[in-house]
Amino acid sequence: MNLIEEILRNTKSIAVIGLKNIESQPAYSVPLYMQKHKYKIYPVNPKLKGTKVLGEEVYSDVTQIKEKVDLVNIFRKPEFLTKHAEEILKMHSLPKYVWFQLGIYNDEAAKMLADKGIKVIQNRCIMVEHVNIII
Length: 135
Hints:
Layout: H1 3-10, E1 13-17, H2 26-36, E2 40-44, E3 52-53, E4 56-57, E5 71-74, H3 81-88, E6 97-100, H4 107-114, E7 119-121, H5 126-133
Parallel strand pairs: 1-2, 1-5, 5-6, 6-7
Antiparallel strand pairs: 3-4
Helix pairs in contact: 3-4
């Protein structure tokens, strides 16, 4: 089993950094797709804190999530990934995986996470991979 298949099969919960509340945006439609396929979604976006998206409370950052999260999926520009990696490393329980969405990569942030035992995927769409591997 390759890493992407491992992630998709072993993940039950996903924190989504940069989730949006605009249905036409991938940062909404991709988490919606994953939710429809039985993944628990934790929306993370400080601009939307105090609201609900996809029926779930929105967190301002991942450190506020008290439940164990298997994967953190990131929809942010590459220049923000180092900061997000630092936040992820402060979570109550470290995730097994971090996924940088299609077009998003930052080797420094990926190394920070990998150095702590977190497996990282860069520049891939989790929804496309789910369709190709799981369905």
